[in-house]
Amino acid sequence: MAVEDGGVAATSVRFSAADEGWMQRALALAALAGEQGEVPVGAVLVAADGRVLGEGSNRPIASSDPTQHAEIVALRAACAAAGNYRLPGATLYVTLEPCVMCMGAMLHARLARVVYGAADPKTGACGGVIDVPAEPSLNHQTRVEGGLLAAACGQCLREFFRARRRAARRAAAAALVGPGTPAGLPDEGAGSGG
Ligand SMILES: [Zn+2]
């Protein structure tokens, strides 16, 4: 399996069928974000007894707020509903490796476990760029496990960025040639890769 697919072997047996079901839900939330033009990342926060505590989709663009990552949205919803800024025993499932901000917030919330899908070599804080949970001197340890449905989670992101690049190229080409150009611009829709 390629690093871009999550960098974790597909044969991993660390995850249960319930884990996989929650990640499927996070993937559905990621798709919702993508439909809104946000980078498609979704998160679900689940109590130890299997209750959903909160859900979130990435929405920094719509909210003009750089902190509105899927994990933060889910944490805020869950903490508000619980009337508690700590959620001990809870597990957060997220489609992409958390960034420093989200990992910090999840440590503050005293989550028991974080499960993510695709690795993020650009902003990942669980080994992708730096490894926050591996820091032994942190006062709270949250178990972090990556690679669940990594291929599907990575595919969701790749398709989004591919479509966005394609749209940007179309817009650039249209701006270059201006209005009234005859038909015949190459169609980038088929087989152009990304
Ligand atoms: Zn984040």
From TrEMBL:
Which superkingdom heads the taxonomic lineage of this protein's source?
Answer: Bacteria
What EC identifiers does the entry list? 3.5.4.33
**Which residues bind Zn(2+) per the record?**
H69, C99, C102
Keyword tRNA processing assigned:
yes
Quaternary organization: Homodimer.
Free-text function comment from the UniProt entry: Catalyzes the deamination of adenosine to inosine at the wobble position 34 of tRNA(Arg2).
Query: What is this protein's name?
Result: tRNA-specific adenosine deaminase
**Naturally occurring in which organism (per UniProt):** Verticiella sediminum
Query: What's the encoding gene here?
Result: tadA
